[in-house]
Specification:
Blueprint lengths: L1 E7 L6 H5 L1 H8 L3 E7 L12 E2 L9 E2 L1 H11 L4 E11 L2 H7 L4 E5 L8 H7 L2 E4 L8 H13 L32 E2 L2 E2 L9 H19 L1 H10 L6
Parallel strand pairs: 1-2, 1-6, 5-6, 5-7
Antiparallel strand pairs: 3-4, 8-9
The chain binds 6-chloroguanine.
6-chloroguanine binds next to strand 5 and helix 6.
Length: 233
Amino acid sequence: MKIFKIITLFPDFFQSPLKSGLLGKAIEKGLCHIECINLRQWGEGQYRQCDDYPYGGGSGMVLMPVPLLKAIESCKGDSKVLYPSPSGTVLNQDMVKELFHHDSFLFICGQYEGIDQRVINRYVDYEISIGDYVLSGGEYAALVIIDALCRYIPGFMSNPESLSDESFENYLLEYPQYTRPREIDGMCVPDILISGDHEKIRRWRLEKSIEKTRATRPDLYRLYIAKKDEVKQ
Ligand code: 6GU
């Protein structure tokens, strides 16, 4: 059972993802537990203020340390603290596998210009970005990270085999997939996929994966070439 706690100013944001799709099913089946904690309850003053102007000036607001420290202390327990942030280490599949060793995670979702550095220094175990672009809040990234982790929970995937030949597991992107019908408006499924020759199909798919990776992700392709001998073909 994996436990995900999420400190956020927008707990409603997580409502529908937690009810639908594989994540919703996993919660129903008791494979994981997800709990949103409303940061606002530790806000200061009549308006439960949680953000303030940055010292030193500059645009945007910063999440105040005191409400955040109280929130973390109230629910951290044994959790690893993850702070989704565009300044973090960029997430990849190896990091997902590494993180999966932990059982309980506490996400801190920042808004605006982020959170007070002292909170990061005291509590954050992993500061993680989900890519080189900017989002309006950490909630989007928290959901992405939770989904990537849940895929490794036994029973989460309807087809666990797809965990091992998925893109990035072997530094190759996925080969093209086809399903019925065999022909639409003159567009045909490649004959080889209908041949029934599993070895030929396997080689065709590998070749297509390599072509696709070389064309769209030269960075991954170089890793594939470098690691080729270690990877089971
Ligand atoms: Cl984790 N947060 C925000 N706000 N923007 C991002 C991100 C995270 N990862 C990439 N861009």
